[in-house]
């Protein structure tokens, strides 16, 4: 990702009102020419040799275009294709980018409405619902059923896990919104456009990882009913592993969240021309507000609204884009001719960017850690009343996630069908590869009032959900794993409320400040990716050994985690530096600019298309899907080997509740009974009532 100013930002210096109401002659002419560009390209295209015809649904009249002549020596900024109209001056890349900004008053209203609804939801759960709940409690003496209800509705429990009374479908939608960030919405379609449908095979891994998490991990965490998953690390291994896991999560999340907020801001900048420093403070402030005052309930219900906005925006682009190019058959035909309908390579070579083994095996292990077994997801599963509800939630979450990523993948196919003969990445019409989806949106939906606003709202909804979820989980981990162990006595309800909200506000302000760093230092983006990879690998190993290898001790796991972290850090940092310096270049599928009807720099296009060469592969070319799997493998192997030095756990002292049910057969026989979760809660309430009385 590049953080240099794009053509839109350079060409628009007026405020938002001027962007909406600008009616100068220059822009009017540019828009008129743009309409001619879009109508001529959408209705008919030509790419057979120098002159050919392609049927479309809107017109049967063929048009002709002449191919561009490339030379290895620098050439002036020009193209040899004929003009759209006799005597009409063709638009430059910069003018066309500016003219595509069709963000009107209705679009702004749609975007503002989305933010307003999120703020209202936070206000409701932070003030109105909380006040109603207090009025329903008949007594506050701490005795009897009322006292039990009040304790179960304590500040931390209500703020972090919604009192464990959340519903399945809203939580499933919240999980989808949390794990599909703006980067995923924009990056998935771009991945398909550049490399083909190889990446779409991760849809298979989503089902596999969901089944594994359902069977192996959910029974353990739902039975323990812990607020922070790193409390499990202390129960299983000791305080050292708990502190390590907490620090890895905090650092990784704090580096990732500003990037997740920055990427949609780039889209908003390209679509509207509004500066990044204008929109990010507004969005971040609103998100911090409703997360701070409303807790998990506000986060979940705003995620529900944002999920519908995301689904609606993606579906609108896919449906309208398919209709514009002539239907599903044309989309598939053009992608097949362009080599986009491909599969991962069948090879054992781990340096191949996407092989079938890396996608299925590596992708499954990556999705287990990133989407199913971490603080963010487990915290939401524990907001449900029982294990049965958690299983249903996992099923709904997996289905919805597969559907949304399928739509994102199809949007990549639509992108290639639209730009099959005029690649905007090579011509720099898209200043960065991640701006391709927003460029497609402005082309397909720009003339329909409200739909560009819906798309931008969808991208920002993904960012808001990721940001709010991260802030809520950070408040949970910092309070439960960092602050409480340092205090000599338990916090009161008032102190807990203060710490939780103060952490959200401070972290939100830090994310806002780090957005400026992301904008100025492009290296921060790959650094965030590397940080996520090097933290998820060791954590995957810690989780897996915790529930599946009961004889491994905490000291062994600590050594394995450190070794895994150092090895992954070295590989990831070297790989990211290689990509930034152009030393690591992966093979790309061919593109064309033969059908472009605007001026661009021929030399730049020639270098991008004809002089690009993949680099020779080495260990630093390791597929990104292998990072998490490699980290987990190194952590596990080193920990097991260290067991011969530090010794093994005494299985007679091992609590069976800390081990996954399928591995409890290896524990010594103990007299314990399986208890239904609802019965367990009833027993706990009875014990608490007896103690209180």
UniProtKB/TrEMBL annotation:
Gene Ontology biological process: sodium ion transport
Keywords: Cell membrane, Ion transport, Membrane, Sodium, Sodium transport, Transmembrane, Transmembrane helix, Transport
Bilayer topology term: Multi-pass membrane protein
Low complexity: bias regions: 45-83
Subcellular location: Cell membrane
Primary location class: membrane
Residues annotated as transmembrane: 108-127, 168-187, 199-222, 243-263, 275-296, 394-419, 454-478, 498-518, 524-545, 557-577, 624-648
GO molecular function: symporter activity
GO cellular component: plasma membrane
Family: Belongs to the sodium:solute symporter (SSF) (TC 2.A.21) family.
Name of the protein described by the UniProt record: Sodium-coupled monocarboxylate transporter 1 isoform X4
């Amino acid at each position: 990702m590049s953080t240099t100013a794009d053509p839109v930002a350079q060409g628009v210096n007026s405020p938002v009102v001027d962007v909406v109401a600008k009616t100068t002659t220059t822009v009017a002419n540019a828009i008129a020419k743009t309409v001619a560009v879009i109508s001529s390209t959408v209705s008919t295209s030509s790419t057979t040799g120098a002159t050919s015809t392609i049927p479309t649904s809107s017109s049967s009249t063929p048009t002709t275009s002449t191919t561009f002549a490339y030379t290895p020596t620098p050439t002036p900024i020009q193209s040899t294709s004929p003009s759209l109209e006799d005597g009409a001056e063709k638009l430059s890349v910069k003018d066309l980018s500016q003219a595509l900004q069709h963000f009107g008053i209705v679009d702004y209203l749609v975007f503002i409405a989305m933010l307003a609804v999120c703020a209202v939801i936070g206000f409701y759960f932070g003030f109105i619902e909380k006040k109603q709940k207090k009025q329903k409690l008949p007594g506050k003496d701490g005795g009897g059923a009322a006292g039990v209800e009040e304790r179960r509705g304590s500040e931390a429990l209500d703020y972090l896990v919604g009192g464990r009374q959340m519903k399945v479908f809203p939580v499933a939608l919240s999980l989808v919104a949390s794990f599909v960030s703006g980067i995923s919405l924009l990056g998935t379609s771009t991945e398909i456009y550049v490399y083909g449908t190889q990446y779409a095979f991760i849809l298979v891994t989503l089902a596999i990882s969901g089944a594994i998490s359902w069977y192996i991990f959910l029974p353990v965490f739902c039975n323990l009913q812990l607020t922070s998953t790193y409390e499990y690390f202390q129960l299983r291994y000791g305080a050292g592993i708990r502190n390590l896991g907490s620090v890895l999560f905090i650092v990784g999340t704090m580096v990732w969240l500003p990037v997740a907020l920055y990427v949609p801001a780039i889209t908003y900048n390209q679509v509207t021309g509004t500066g990044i420093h204008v929109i990010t403070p507004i969005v971040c402030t609103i998100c911090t507000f409703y997360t701070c005052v409303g807790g998990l309930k506000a986060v979940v219900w705003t995620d529900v609204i944002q999920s519908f906005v995301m689904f609606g925006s993606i579906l609108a682009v896919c449906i309208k884009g398919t209709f514009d190019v002539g239907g599903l058959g044309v989309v598939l035909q053009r992608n097949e001719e362009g080599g986009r309908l491909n599969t991962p390579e069948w090879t054992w070579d781990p340096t191949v960017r996407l092989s079938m083994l890396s996608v299925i095996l590596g992708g499954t292990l990556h999705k287990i850690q990133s989407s199913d077994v971490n603080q963010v997801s487990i915290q939401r599963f524990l907001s449900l009343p029982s294990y049965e509800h958690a299983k249903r939630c996992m099923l709904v979450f997996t289905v919805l996630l597969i559907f949304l990523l399928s739509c994102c993948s199809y949007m990549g196919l639509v992108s290639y069908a639209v730009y099959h003969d005029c690649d905007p990445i090579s011509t720099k019409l898209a200043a960065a590869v991640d701006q391709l989806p927003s460029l497609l949106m402005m082309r397909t939906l720009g003339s329909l009032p409200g739909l560009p606003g819906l798309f931008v709202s969808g991208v920002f909804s993904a960012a808001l959900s990721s940001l709010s979820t991260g802030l809520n989980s950070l408040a949970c981990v910092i309070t439960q794993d960092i602050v409480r162990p340092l205090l000599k006595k338990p916090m009161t309800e008032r102190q807990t409320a203060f710490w939780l909200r103060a952490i959200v506000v401070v972290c939100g302000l830090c994310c806002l400040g780090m957005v400026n760093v992301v904008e100025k230092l492009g290296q921060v983006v790959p650094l965030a990716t590397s940080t996520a990879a090097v933290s998820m690998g060791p954590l995957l190993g810690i989780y897996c050994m915790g529930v599946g290898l009961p004889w491994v001790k905490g000291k062994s796991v600590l050594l394995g985690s450190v070794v895994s972290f150092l090895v992954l850090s070295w590989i990831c940092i070297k790989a990211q530096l290689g990509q930034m310096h152009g030393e690591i270049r992966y093979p790309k599928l061919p593109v064309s600019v033969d059908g472009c009807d605007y001026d661009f720099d021929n030399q730049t296009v020639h270098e991008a298309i004809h002089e690009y060469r993949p680099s020779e592969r080495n260990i630093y070319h390791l597929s990104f899907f292998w990072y998490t799997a490699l980290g987990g493998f190194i952590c596990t192997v080193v920990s097991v080997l260290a067991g011969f030095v530090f010794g093994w756990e005494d299985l007679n002292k091992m609590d069976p509740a800390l081990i996954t049910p399928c591995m409890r057969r290896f524990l010594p026989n103990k007299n314990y009974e399986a208890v239904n979760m609802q019965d367990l809660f009833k027993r706990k309430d009875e014990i608490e009532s007896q103690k209180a009385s």
